[in-house]
Amino acid sequence: MCGIAGVLGPAERTSQVIGPMLEVIRHRGPDDSGSYVGSDFAFGMTRLSIIDIAGGHQPMWSLDGTVGIVFNGEIYNYRELDAELADAGLPPRSSSDTDTILRLYEHMGRDDLPGMLRRLRGMFGLCIYDASLQQLVLARDPFGIKPLYVRLEDGSQGSRVAAFGSEIKSLLVDPQAVPQVDMDAVVNYLSFQFNPLPQTFFRGIRRLEPGHYAVVPLANPSFQPARYWRYEFAPAVDNESLLVDEVRGVLEDSVEHHLIADVPVGAFLSGGVDSAITVTLVQEQRKAMGLEPVKTFTVGFDAVSEHAEAREVADVLGTDHHEIHVDLSDYLRALPDIAWYFDEPVADPSAVSLYFVARAAREHVTVVLSGEGADELFGGYRIYREPIDLDRVRRLPAPLRRLAGRLGRSTRSFPGRNYLRRATTPFADRYIGNAYIFRPEEVRRLLRDPGHATHVRPADVLAAEYPGFDSLPESRRMQLVDMNFWLRGDILAKADRMTMAHSLELRVPYLDPEVAAVSARIPDDLKYREGTTKWLLRRAFRGRIPESTERRAKLGFPTPFRHWLAQDPDAVLAPIRRSAFLASIFDMDVVEGLARSHTEGETDASRRIFVLLMLALWHEAFFDGPPGLRPSERAGT
């Protein structure tokens, strides 16, 4: 696991810039670092040593010195690939998966780059330098587990790649990078609680999307990303027992591959079914190898905690369990640094929980496994069942449907009005993902300049990219929305940033191409059954996890932020009230009204206030001080 960075330009400039770019992301890789400065670009890495601790130094070069690579991530099938490449006359030169990628590129990457990238079973953000073709190859893993950003500048031939890196802050330490706020990102963030756009909160900085690569010619470094992988539903298999066996087998195989490491490995345990399955498989495999029980970690608060649920699983499995407790003062003290680690605002309160549990886990292990992705692949959110309920209205005769629509849009409040409104609202307007914080009319009231109050509609984006998207059942459309927006922008962003803040590698065995291929064949009636979600996944591990855990609703490290907001509103609201940036773009009377309605118990505005809080702290982190320093470091400067 590493952080990577690169900058294009003459050596006299890049040689001065690459060092600071790597230093600011040293938390991603404190064990080693390396760089290369060429005549027209420089790149390098900071390394967290996981596999081949002694021999995995980067940049790594081909035997003839014409191909070099910097790589952030892990390739779990590298041993299988090594065997194939050895048969092809390219034997391994070390036990590093970085060497595997390098030789795979030599073997097939020049002729079939998309095919080569599809062979990699793992998580990655990488840059390959091919001296013979005078080009860079940037690539990101299929799900977007690992990040990769590019800074673009306009030239005579359009946008040109100026720099790239694992984190935005690495790009901002370049003196030529002047940070400017992208208001489109801000407006979309207000509704999604994360930025769903390809462009970031910083003008001129874009993310390389998951499952994409970009070939960047050094003579004309244009940025033209192309897709090499995407999740697609396959024809459903109407055979429950066969699918149960496949789900069980593929997850056992995925966890086995995700345990490959030369350092201690643990697991997060939230008390829900996803992490329980992961920990069960880890513990079974460790026991079979005669190893000590796996170390598991959970976090809790006074007002809300999963300690009891997680402890129940840990006791049954016999793990070495650790519980972390966080209070309000800890929470608020950490938020400014968390905003800095995120690069862009992500207003998921559970991210703070993950920050603290990752910090505690790093005292014991270097790698943790976690359950991210199970809900998106196996149908785990209760909202996915909503179309079944809404169909009762949709099957009504047209005159009654029109009446239901008028009633749903009525300003009068009555039981069932929201149900009628949702049943008669088009999918693209109704569903943008698992979070919908500020709706467009609320954004218009909030903004001083309401002219740009609309957000992107994920269903429209996917309809343009996925043939047949609009004809899919709504539950499947919901899954694709969440895989392509919520999973990437929120779930995986917090998973990467909150763990790497403490130099801890997080692995997600559900987000594996082999697992995805099985999940794509599960029919909806095996996902949603007996009043529950992820039915087939639960069924596959019945008897191997506690029965109460199998039936438990989704948990996921909840936080008591709404209670704290009511308990000490002045402490929570202080960054919002002192933010000149927020005052310049928002009507602060509307903001104060939100806070007042929450503290007086009229409504639960905690999620909306948290969105504003993280926006204020993000702006402070990157515009009120040097972006290369954490806010907590600045106090002493």
Describe what is shown at a glance:
With 637 residues, the protein is α+β, with helices and mostly antiparallel strands.
Describe the structure.
With 637 residues, this protein is α+β, with helices and mostly antiparallel strands. Among the domains are: 226 residues, Aminohydrolase, N-terminal nucleophile (Ntn) domain (Glutamine Phosphoribosylpyrophosphate, subunit 1, domain 1); 211 residues, HUPs (Rossmann fold, 3-Layer(aba) Sandwich). It is built from 28 helices and 17 strands. The chain has a 6-stranded antiparallel β-sheet. α7 crosses α8, α7 runs antiparallel to α20 and α11 crosses α19. The longest helix is centred in the C-terminal third of the chain and has 27 residues. The model has no long low-confidence stretch (mean pLDDT 90).
The count of helical stretches stands at 28
Mean pLDDT: 90
- The CATH architecture designation of the domain at 2-227 is 4-Layer Sandwich
Rounded Rg: 24 Å
- What separation lies between the terminal Cα atoms? 31 Å
Could you give a short account of the major beta sheet?
6 strands, antiparallel
Strand percentage: 5-15%
Class by alpha and beta content? alpha+beta
CATH topology grouping of the domain at 2-227: Glutamine Phosphoribosylpyrophosphate, subunit 1, domain 1
Number of beta strands: 17
What level of helicity do the residues show?
40-55%
Q: How would you describe the shape? A: globular
| Strand ordering within the main sheet | 2-3-1-9-8-10
Low-confidence stretches: none
The CATH C-level class name of the domain at 2-227: Alpha Beta
Which superfamily, in CATH terms, is the homologous superfamily of the domain at 2-227?
Answer: Aminohydrolase, N-terminal nucleophile (Ntn) domain
